[in-house]
Amino acid sequence: MASRLCFNTVGFLMVASVGLLLQGANAGNTYIVGDELGWVVPPNNSYYQEWANSKTFQKGDSLVFNWTTGTHTATEVSTKEKYDNCTKMGIILIDPGFTVTFNENGTHYFLCSEGTHCQQGQKMIIKIGDGIAPSFAAPSLTAAAAISAVLISTIVTFFLN
Ligand SMILES: *[C@@H]1O[C@H](CO)[C@@H](O)[C@H](O)[C@H]1NC(C)=O
Ligand SMILES: *[C@@H]1O[C@H](CO)[C@@H](O)[C@H](O)[C@H]1NC(C)=O
Ligand SMILES: *[C@@H]1O[C@H](CO)[C@@H](O)[C@H](O)[C@H]1NC(C)=O
Ligand SMILES: *[C@@H]1O[C@H](CO)[C@@H](O)[C@H](O)[C@H]1NC(C)=O
Ligand SMILES: [Cu+2]
Q1: What residues are in contact with ligand 2 under a 6 Å CB criterion?
Q2: Which of 61, 105, 136 has most ligand 4 atoms within 8 Å of its beta carbon, as the pocket-test mutant?
Q3: What is the DSSP string of 8-50?
Q4: Atom of ligand 3 nearest to the CA of 86
Q5: 109-138 pLDDT, tens digit each
Q6: Ligand closest in space to the Cα of 106
Q7: Which residues form the signal peptide (predicted)?
């Protein structure tokens, strides 16, 4: 009973502090990449870039990479050169439904590392704000996104238990 109460209190505090974090980060918009199509091999090479260009992403916004057919990855690569070359080495976000939140301005290069999906246009460049990362935070940007994802999945797991 006592430990149960303790866990509930911890859970509440975690949710409350995440709520505050989200508020502090301007509780942005959430976009499903590709809308109804999701994140798959697109009908043409420019599909996802056209999709991205039709939005204005700001600090605090989130992207959901969602797919229900095929095998895909949402892989973030670090440079335009790797992006242009469809390089498969990068930070891989695999679970369908993966959400990434951007807490700073910057430019991000996403692609699918399965087969030739990237060459077929399953790739896009995302600009947050003016697309310029603050120099002091640049190396830790991706880490911050990953950590917030882990934190959220921890909380979800907590409630499912
Ligand atoms: C790519 O496909 C989308 C959806 O079918 C279409 O709206 C868009 O015009 C196409 N772009 C090109 C360059 O063909
Ligand atoms: C993911 O895609 C499936 C199938 O298209 C859809 O039913 C589901 O609502 C999508 N999830 C989100 C979060 O958009
Ligand atoms: C470009 O892609 C090829 C094939 O995947 C790879 O062998 C090569 O190292 C890549 N080059 C760069 C600069 O990323
Ligand atoms: C981020 O981008 C927005 C929109 O372009 C801009 O107003 C802002 O000055 C940029 N810099 C920071 C640090 O937010
Ligand atoms: Cu793919």
Answers
A1: 32, 38, 64, 66, 68
A2: 105
A3: HHHHHHHHHHHHHHHHHTT---EEETTGGG-SS--SSTTHHHH
A4: 2
A5: 999 999 999 999 999 999 999 999 998 754
A6: 4
A7: 1-27
